[in-house]
Design goal:
- This protein is an all-alpha fold.
- It has one domain.
- It contains 4 helices and no strands.
- It has helices at 2-22, 29-50, 55-76, 84-103.
- Helix 1 (2-22) packs antiparallel against helix 2, helix 1 (2-22) crosses helix 3 and helix 3 packs antiparallel against helix 4 (84-103).
- The longest helix is centred in the middle third of the chain and has 22 residues, at 29-50.
- The protein is flat, with a radius of gyration of 15 Å.
Length: 109
């Protein structure tokens, strides 16, 4: 259950951040409303995950996977280029998440 809540929090945060780009600095109503609703949903589901997991681990997964998702969306949807150092950094984020999940007892509360 906590991982499902965390996954929903990540997905809704990703939706909100994508809509933030589309809102054009909150000048477009539809995307702006999506930002607000998505971030509220994200924090709600993150709070559920926090009942079962430590805040540092939840935030590491939420922010790290959110960064990966947003970078991919930025590349595919908005045509934003990712150079070698950006890809290396994203790879390090993924490696950090894998290390936490596989080897840290902190990930399993």
């Amino acid at each position: 259950m906590p991982y499902l809540a965390l996954l929903i929090a990540i997905v809704t945060e990703t939706i909100g951040t994508t809509a933030l780009q589309a809102s054009q600095q909150f000048t477009r109503l539809g995307p702006s409303l999506i930002v607000i609703v998505s971030y509220c949903a994200s924090f709600f589901f993150m709070s559920i995950a926090l009942k079962y997991m430590s805040v540092g681990i939840v935030y590491a997964f939420w922010s790290g996977l959110g960064i990966i998702c947003i970078a991919a969306i930025g590349w595919v949807v908005f045509g934003q280029r990712l150079d070698g150092p950006a890809l290396a950094g994203l790879g390090l984020i993924i490696a950090g998440i894998v290390v936490i999940q596989l080897f840290s007892s902190s990930a399993h509360h």
